[in-house]
Design goal:
This protein is mostly helical. It has one domain. The protein is built from eleven helices and no strands. It starts with a helix and ends with a helix. The relative contact order is 0.22.
Length: about 240
């Protein structure tokens, strides 16, 4: 669990630095940095998605995942959790409008950071290496990337980003602890396709930074698991 713990602590420290030190910069600088980070996230997401080998599977995963996510409305559930957590930290003396605005900002930071830090091949492979081999190098490298983004996210979206560390700890820790079982269920081919879908979802987070039209990114999360189901079914049919 060393890798997941270090990753989570890095997010906590860097997001706090962003909230209380970097956040004091003028709004125009904060705005252009936020847009720059959005462009970088879009690039990283599209670059990761381009590594997939089955384009139709990628499209099918996004469609099926979006339908499932919209039915469950994961975005609403995560935002409700974020608003509830944020409500515990805001002064009761503030007006309803002030509290509502802070809750929305808190929830957006929590949800965006949680999705960004918990999707992609580094999360899956790094956690498996940490659990199976005690090799934490990939998660340590991921901690540097997540820490950098936490600094910027914390400055632009506030303290909610820090609470994504809990999501990261649960996600990576769960994979690390269940690695012996998961290893038999995941091949590199499956991981590649799941990571490609996850990367495309990351790109969606980047687009949200431009504040043109909000994408309910959390409702796309089920798409990550569609390639795994597809390969399992294909393997069963092949053996029949």
């Amino acid at each position: 669990m060393l890798g997941p713990v270090v990753n989570a602590l890095t997010i906590v420290v860097c997001s706090l630095l962003g909230c209380f030190i970097v956040r004091g910069i003028p709004f125009r600088f904060e705005e252009i940095v936020k847009k720059g980070m959005g462009l970088a996230i879009v690039y990283l997401g599209i670059k990761g998605a381009m590594e997939n080998r089955y384009v139709l599977l990628l499209i099918m995963s996004m469609v099926i995942g979006a339908v499932i996510g919209e039915l469950v409305n994961i975005d609403r559930l995560m935002n409700s959790l974020g608003r509830w957590a944020g409500n515990q930290f805001f002064s009761k003396k503030e007006t309803e409008t002030q509290r509502s605005e802070k809750q929305e900002t808190f929830a957006k930071g929590f949800v965006s950071a949680s999705i960004l830090f918990c999707t992609g091949s580094m999360t899956i492979v790094g956690s498996m290496q940490s659990g199976l081999q005690g090799n934490h190098e990939m998660l340590f490298a991921k901690s540097i990337l997540d820490g950098t983004m936490s600094l910027v996210f914390g400055a632009s979206m506030g303290i909610g980003v820090m609470f994504s560390a809990f999501t990261v700890l649960v996600c990576e820790g769960g994979v690390a602890l269940a690695a012996s079982v998961i290893k038999r269920l995941l091949t590199m081919e499956i991981i590649t396709e799941m990571s490609a879908v996850g990367s495309l979802i990351i790109a969606a987070i980047g687009f949200n930074f431009f504040e043109i039209k909000e994408i309910r990114v959390a409702n796309l999360i089920p798409a990550i698991f569609v390639p795994w189901v597809w390969f399992v079914i294909a393997d069963i049919l092949q053996k029949m």
